[in-house]
Amino acid sequence: MSDTNRRWEFEDEHEFLEKLKELVDQGTPTERLDVITPIPVPATEEILKMKRSPLRFFTLAGALTGLSLGFAFTIFTVMDWPIITGGKPLVSLPPFLIIAFALTILLGSLASFAGFLILGKMPSISKIQNPIEHENMFIIMLEDEAAQ
Amino acid sequence: MSSPRAYFEKLEIDVLAAMGKPSIGYLIALAVSATCFVVGMGLWGYQMLFGMGVAGIRHPVGWGVYITDFVFWVGIAHSGTLISAVLFLFRAKFRSRFNRSAEAMTIFAVMTAGLFPLIHLGRSWFAYWLFPYPNQRELWVNFRSPLVWDVFAVSTYLTVSAVFFFVGLVPDLAVVRGRAEGIRKKIYAAFSLGWIGSAKQWIHYNQLYIFLAALATPLVISVHSVVSWDFAMSIVPGWHTTIFAPYFVAGAIFSGTAMVLTLMIPMRKILKLEDHINIGHFESLAKILLFTSLIVGYAYAVEFALAFYSGHTFEIAHFTYRLLGDYWALYALMVFSNVLLPLALFVKKLRRNIPFLFVLSIFVNIGMWLERFVIIVTSLSKEYDPYSWGTYVPSMVEVGITIGSFGLFFTLFLIFTKVLPVLAITEVKETAL
């Protein structure tokens, strides 16, 4: 392969995928290939043999934190100053579940969003200053080996 | 069909053209909405200055128009999440035409709704008492109270909806960045966080979007259930029933879908988006409207059936009062708007008739507002003890603040149409292929 720092642009998604496949089949290392597309193209993930996003672990961690925090907080507060209201048990799990549920969703969502920013390396100052515009083209970029 | 790129370019130009220089009509609409809002805020100030006596709420009807407005606006929010999250998980393609506006509507409606508990408080500056912190005697809030559940449910809803809305916007902000100039380019570049659409970004993005949709989906059901429990947890006749949660959720989606139609029909025309939102897309919304209207109609019938089947004197007396008592005209208009008129949507020609859909959506908005009013006011005005019966008529301050809330909602929505792309450009591209 003599191509260094090359760039191919396609108007058509299928031609783009064919070229990408051809490059990978020719033995181009996938780390040197990057693609930019105006819409998500799930097939590129397979061709480039990308690993599944670990974002799900952020979601899980956030949701579990929210769930335990919801129960811990409500139970702590009724134990901290025990006062019986409406003749109900101090630790009333059904109403506390509502708080725990809300916090599960809240922290699960916020952690997922944080995970996205961390994994996607955003916000990126350099890309904000000098963004690459796809201009509705499907782009394949082959990075120079020296740039690695 | 021409090449996808030609379509992509046309779509971007059309949607971004909508963000261009505002027309006279737009400026007039903005001025009217903003004036309503300012007058409404002025009336709130007047109420703070002279006390809650200026509102019509007094014993025995302590919850009136303000709580009606709160439930109404939270309800409006719901179809935004339904369209953006639930229909995403169901892979309903028509959602891409409405999700951006519906999500924006959700956020603005929850913001508007959030004002009403504060307005209703009277001494609004003590709103922080609802937050979970120990007071000076180290006593915490009561987590068994539905009002505290509401604080958690509604604030979670607002936060998650805002995150979902922003995430959906990121690739589109990058599109706007690509076509903007000068300082606008810099602002959109900053908010697009450096999005370029590389495979490494998309892989995380797609995963995030699915998770947010999955997390927001239970919120569609939970938030309005919690709002309904503000009523159902008490032992007031007409409120204390187990069907309240599903009944309110269906009503919320029903009213929200109507509001999407009310907003989108003129917006499509004014912003010239006819090429991208067609009658078929509106027909899909009309089907959601019809389906939820049937559920709401069924709930109205079940409420009566349960009351009479129970043989409970107070329940029977309450529902007889609701149907035939002081507020019978409002109840009748509510049934007409929410149950009878939407039945016309069984006719395909009417489902595809845009002016009819617009008029119907207005009726449903009114009908759903009346539903909340009727539920709240009729139950309180004739509770158990005949000695404390009484009727309620809203004062001009309450009416003015309600109009002000519509002013706030429309002001925010109008600003949105000029600042952000009103169609989810990237998702429309995706579904167009």
Structural notes for this entry:
The complex is a heterodimer of chains A (148) and B (433). Chain A is mostly helical and 148 residues long. Helix content of chain A is 52%, strand content 9%. Chain A has a 3-stranded antiparallel β-sheet, covered by helices on one side. The longest helix of chain A has 27 residues, at 93-119. Chain A is elongated, with a radius of gyration of 25 Å. The two termini of chain A are 16 Å apart. By secondary structure, chain B is mainly α. The interface between A and B is large, with 67 and 60 residues.
Instruction: List the secondary-structure elements of chain B in sequence, H or E.
Output: HHHHHHHHHHHHHHH
The biggest sheet of chain B amounts to: none
Q: Give the strand content of chain B.
A: under 5%
Biggest β-sheet strands, sense, barrel of chain A: 3 strands, antiparallel
Structural shape of chain B: globular
Strand content of chain A: 5-15%
Spatial gap, N to C terminus of chain B = 10 Å
Mean pLDDT of chain A: 89
Low-confidence stretches of chain B: none
Order of helices and strands of chain A: EHEHHHHE
Helix content of chain A: 40-55%
Number of strands of chain B: 0
- Helix count of chain B, per DSSP? 15
| Largest interface, C-beta closer than 8 angstroms, per-chain residues | A-B, 67 and 60 residues
| Rg of chain B, Å, rounded | 23 Å
